[in-house]
Amino acid sequence: MKIDHDHYEAAYLSGILRDTKTIALVGASPNAARPSYGVMRFLLSKGYRVIPVNPGQAGKEILGQTTYATLADIPEPIDMVDVFRASEYLHEVVDDAIALDPRPKVIWSQLSVRDDLAAREAEAAGIKVVMDRCPAIEMPRLGL
Question: Model-level pTM?
């Protein structure tokens, strides 16, 4: 299925958000003023298992969740990788996600984060991609 990364169908986003249970949040911050902190708090409040990933915070807790340095360090399967890193790092996150076994089902990059080449690589590996969107905005918009 060819995905138009400029316009996502509501059913595509809803399906991802309904099927996802465990989210690795790459670029998680312990700073309550940072968008990643607010989105992590929102996702936890919606019942998701959210695992923060930030090498500078590894071993510490963010919102009561143990933080890991890398995706590979997470000791359980993840359904979705939510990326709070600049666009130039998205390809590296995609490569890390593809290397996981099992692979996550989705890579979701936050507002203004987009790399079409990385998206094609993820999709070729069987991973769905959403870019330049925020689940904390999409969920209320979609009535989830």
Answer: 0.97
Q: What is the DSSP string of 96-129?
A: HHHTSSSPPSEEEE-TT---HHHHHHHHHTT-EE
What is the rounded distance in angstroms from the CA atom of residue 80 to the CA atom of residue 7?
20
* Spatial distance between the Cα atoms of 35 and 31, rounded to a whole number of angstroms: 9
Rounded CA separation 86/24 (Å): 16
Domain boundaries, the chain: 10-142
- Could you give the strand order of the β-sheet that contains 22-26, starting from the edge strand earlier in sequence? 49-53, 22-26, 80-83, 106-109, 128-130
Q: Which CATH superfamily is domain 10-142 in?
A: NAD(P)-binding Rossmann-like Domain (3.40.50.720)
Q: Which pLDDT score is estimated for 110?
A: 96
Percent of the chain with pLDDT over 90: 98
CA 108 to chain centre: 4
